[in-house]
Design goal:
302 residues, mainly alpha, two-stranded antiparallel ribbon, 14 helices
């Protein structure tokens, strides 16, 4: 077992730690880096990274448990927050041992899990540079639903590290990969309401990264139905009135729903995703839950 080579930083991804190691050790070839540190070849450690057992056993990151790596250094808590316990455990097993992509065990449509170019916030980069010699990639910025920084509220920027580059190797957050001239994520209207909505979703998503209480999706749905009843959004049979809920979504979120795929069509909230969330199998992505919870919080006056 090696001694500890690197320490985790606030909200840092496992990928970011590996990228910093690539720079510190001057080993640019991914396979050579993995063999040197962990004694085997493996996929790039990004997103819901797999093969965590040999990584933890190497001692490179100090004394830490596999579950802690998964929960604190990857995007796992966000993606599995509302998943059935059996699916959560299946994902965790793949992350421990390797095999297929962990995301394939969730049963969620792939485009809700896709992670494109690495994202960053210029204000965060500046603050990080004051604390350490080099900045890092933040977990909360890489969540697919997040388009603005949950701390500063500024639209995130797209780094030069594309999705293809992420899959093939490690690229650290630097002034070269995070240039001031980088493209800002398109958030549509600059109206204060749109910015408020995107910041609300970013902060709700960020909180999921720290959530540890295990939820059962049946209990979550029952809670939703109770809150929908209080809001007058159930039908006479006591079921979710998807049409009424969609109209309430339009009044509260408005065009902001168009910021994400398949939620807004022809200028209105789509009913398909709401029906699946409230009436179908428990396979809706975290984003759908957050949008509904934002609406219900508004009814509750939170």
């Amino acid at each position: 077992m090696r001694g500890q080579l690197i320490a985790h930083r606030d909200d840092e991804t496992l990928y970011s730690m590996m990228a910093r190691l690539t720079r510190y050790l001057a080993i640019s070839e991914t396979g050579a880096l993995h063999r040197s540190l962990f004694g085997k070849d493996m996929p790039v450690l990004d997103g819901m990274a797999t093969n965590l057992m040999p990584i933890v056993g190497s001692g490179v990151f100090g004394e830490i448990e596999v579950a802690d790596v998964a929960l604190e250094w990857t995007t796992l808590p966000y993606h599995v927050r509302y998943a059935h316990p059996a699916r959560r455990e299946a994902v965790m097993d793949v992350m421990r041992r390797g095999g297929a992509a962990a995301s394939s065990s969730l049963g969620v449509a792939a485009h809700y899990l896709e992670e494109g170019a690495l994202k960053f916030c210029p204000a965060c980069i500046e603050e990080m540079s004051e604390l350490h010699a080099d900045p890092w990639w933040r977990r909360s910025h890489q969540l697919p639903a997040v388009q603005v920084c949950p701390d500063h509220g500024d639209p995130l920027r797209l780094s030069t590290v594309t999705s293809a580059m992420r899959r093939s190797g490690y690229h650290a957050a630097t002034l070269q990969t995070c240039p001031p001239s980088s493209e800002t994520i398109e958030v549509g209207s600059a109206e204060p309401a749109r910015q408020r909505d995107l910041l609300q979703i970013a902060r709700l998503a960020d909180r999921l990264l720290d959530a540890r209480e295990e939820l059962h999706p049946d209990d979550v749905r029952e809670c939703y139905l109770s809150r929908l009843q209080t809001a007058g959004l159930l039908n006479r049979l006591g079921e979710a009135d998807v049409g009424k809920i969609a109209a309430a979504m339009d009044r509260y979120w408005g065009d902001t729903l168009g910021s994400w795929q398949q939620l807004h069509e022809d200028g209105r909230c789509s009913q398909g995703w709401l029906g699946k969330l409230l009436l179908g199998e428990h396979r809706s992505p975290a984003l759908h839950h957050l949008i509904l919870e934002g609406l219900l919080d508004a009814f509750d006056g939170r």
